[in-house]
UniProtKB/TrEMBL annotation:
Organism the protein comes from: Streptomyces shaanxiensis
Annotated stretches, region: Disordered: 1-43, 621-651, 720-798
Record's compositionally biased regions (Low complexity): 723-762, 772-782
Annotated Basic residues bias: 9-19
Sequence ranges assigned to domain Penicillin-binding protein transpeptidase in this UniProt record: 407-659
UniProt protein name: Transglycosylase domain-containing protein
UniProt superkingdom: Bacteria
Catalysed reaction, written as an equation: [GlcNAc-(1->4)-Mur2Ac(oyl-L-Ala-gamma-D-Glu-L-Lys-D-Ala-D-Ala)](n)-di-trans,octa-cis-undecaprenyl diphosphate + beta-D-GlcNAc-(1->4)-Mur2Ac(oyl-L-Ala-gamma-D-Glu-L-Lys-D-Ala-D-Ala)-di-trans,octa-cis-undecaprenyl diphosphate = [GlcNAc-(1->4)-Mur2Ac(oyl-L-Ala-gamma-D-Glu-L-Lys-D-Ala-D-Ala)](n+1)-di-trans,octa-cis-undecaprenyl diphosphate + di-trans,octa-cis-undecaprenyl diphosphate + H(+); Preferential cleavage: (Ac)2-L-Lys-D-Ala-|-D-Ala. Also transpeptidation of peptidyl-alanyl moieties that are N-acyl substituents of D-alanine
Domain Glycosyl transferase family: 128-300
Entry keyword Transmembrane: yes
Amino acid sequence: MGRAEERRARQRGGRRAAPRRSSGSPSVAGGDPSATAIGAPSAVAGGRAAARRAAKGGGRGGDGKGRIRRLFTWKKILGTFLGTCLLAIGAFIALYLSVDIPEGNAAAQAAQRQSNVYKYSDGSTLARDGEVNREIVDLSKVPKEVRNTFVAAENKSFYNDNGIDLKGTARGVLNTLMGKGAQGGSTITQQYVKNYYLSQEQTVSRKLREIVISLKVDRQMSKDEILAGYINTSYYGRSAYGIQAAAQAYYQVDAEKLTVAQGAYLAALLQAPSQYDWQAASDTGKKLVQARWNYVLDNMVEEGWLSKAERQELTFPKPKEPKPAAGLEGQKGYFVALANRQLEDQLMKQQGLTRSQAEAAVVDQGWTITLNIDKKKQAQLEKAVKAQLTSKLDAEKRKVDADIQAGAVSVDPKTGKVVALYGGVDYFKHYTSNATRTDYQPASTFKPVILAAALEENAETQSGKPITANTIYDGTSKRQVVDGNGDKVGFAPENEDDQNYGDITVQTAMNKSVNSVFAQMGVDVGMKSVLDVAGKLGMDVADEQAVPAQTLGTMGASPLQMAGVYATLDNHGKKVTPSIIKTAEHNSQAVELPNPVGEQVISRESADTVTSVLTGVVDDGTARRSVANNPERDGQKVAGKTGTSDDNKSAWFTGYTPDLVTSVGLFGEDDKTHAQTKMYGAGGEERVNGGGFPAEIWAAYMFGVTKANAKFDLDTDQGAAVQPTWTPTPTQEPTTQEPTEEPTTQKPTETPTTEEPTETPTTEPPTEEPTTEPAPTAPTTEPTDDITLDPVRPDNDQ
């Protein structure tokens, strides 16, 4: 045995033998020096290891964490991940092999489309809409530059990808699983597959089938074939399917005659056809579609499909007026358009569809939609507009008369039902619905919102006094508005006719629509708070700036929106979102519709106080002649507000009884260009005021359909509806002059101003000759008709 072997043997033997303990080592058994420590070193080592484990984990907890670490080692995690990936790949391969490209052709799809049926609230048929407008064209007949607009809009990598966008698709599947709805990311191939072979439903299984079919379609069809299928099956709005129908619907040319600019518009349109239809779009919609149009052309320059010089020469190609479908004449087309829009909104919320997907799911899909429109009320509204407005307009005598557009919406405040609607003279003659357009200023009909915000926020004046119906404000015209520090904010609005009122109550300021008072009140409350309350009440103010000028109602609003705002006030502060749809059924399945009446958005006391104050506008202010003194009034209690924009481009009266709310707006729209224009001189009137045509239409309609002697149930001790009328002391000497003081709807809080009147009321002549008889000593609930407190025409407003 060599030395190396001996050494290895000794080492082996040493490991087996128990080494001796040194004499200095502590004994194992109770310190007994004679005790032998069998295996002591390993025991010591084990003890040290246990101590280390105890120090790290601390008893059982340490053992638990140790087990977790042993369970989730990086090797096991990696193995699990790879195994999951293999399973997913295997499952996808199995799916790929099992899913075939289904049969599909545009002609069959067109044949399968069904008309939508629209009914009145009583179940009688109102209209049928659904004539399919589709014509397939060969891609060679579409100019190459126009084809490229669609690629630039939807899928710049179209000619190089394999038919799917993995990142976008993964995001779409994840959003579907999480219930976040549909989002962008689909390629042109995927959109074509969805339009041509599948449905618009948002489910994971449908999305997976879309991926597989898209991959197979991309392998079996050329890019040009896919692009042709895409532009020939897409929905462009105006009941147009395919690029040929769209070219005719929007520009009245064949697809082969489309310009690059027109093609870019049609490509942009696919994102939201109805919202981007220029003739019906809101200001926001027009901005969005122009931005989309620019985006398309910029992408074309980026891809080298359009030169910068050519791009700079292009101007936005406004589409032509649409040709409404048969059966939608009169007001019917306006009903159908609003019903479709509200149904689309609901499908977007419930199923996570995009706007274009929702439109495709509604148009020509065999829906049966029952509306809330009441036939009797609708007939009365149309009759009122004709009697009080259109019959008095003569475009041959006065050119401006051709520029007057009227819109109105009537809502039941207890249910939120839109029971009557006036969108324009005829859907065939004026495609844009004046009932839903939001491009005109609501003007002074916004003032009640400012008061509601003041009450809701418990706001105070600059001097620290609570803002109530009796609070005194300075009504001087062009008075500089100041902030909480007493600094001027650079806003000094003029009252109508530059009228000065001096110190007046909030109630009187509302009655006379005094701009200077509400401008200061808005700053006292805080304009952000004012806009917040406006949003709660139903106005679309998300993109509005919180600046003092908004107190004049300079934002856009529609009669539909304003009817909802005032319906919320009428409903004691519970949110009312007007709905034209009663039921919507498809394939024997009804869509669950939201309750138009929602939660309490402002307190009942705040809402009721505003209602109380607004009764003064009717009985003692700018709507007095047309509404309060209307011979058709049969004891109905009325609250409301007039509004006239500074440049007389819009005039409003929005008012309500306890059981019905109606908003009427008049809008100046150039008969040829459709641009906003002034209404001065229309109907032979020097100026179209809210207390004129709008209030007259309102009264002719409302007093024919509302309950007589209905009263407001108000929870407030403020305002004209609950305060006794103050009767001035009669003069001692007989006089032939009209008194200069008008009874207010609350007792004055200070000595009446001695300011002399600057104008004698002319629109409200006394009903009888003045006498020397003393005035009644008992207070009355209605002001007399022949005297006014403030020196201003009772039917003027701002």
